[in-house]
Specification:
It is built from four helices and four strands; from the N terminus they run βαββαααβ. By secondary structure, the protein is an alpha+beta fold. It has a single domain (2-97), classed as Alpha-Beta Plaits, CATH 3.30.70. A four-stranded antiparallel sheet has the order 2-3-1-4. The longest helix has 15 residues, at 15-29. The chain starts with a strand and ends with a strand.
Length: 100
Amino acid sequence: MIYITQLIYIKPGQEETFHRFEDVAIPIIAKYNGQLLLRIRPDKASVIEANIDAPYEVHLVEFAAESDLENFMRDEERKQFLHLKEQSIKAVTLIKGIKL
């Protein structure tokens, strides 16, 4: 298993555009032996300490193998909606890991 954690930062006023992209992208994960394990939208009260800006959303996704993640990233249906991602997302920090 491979785990992906994403800290997602949205451009101001582009929340709805981001949600439209996610409505397409999230269901596609399952086509590639993946599962969205956790999707969090933290607020200021939930941050105890920070040395970075708090993200708009945090995603934890699991894939059976690295090749499944790569195939998800190349998915043709997902690619058709990448313009929504590019329009709405300011930055993403992606952290790859394994379960210990």
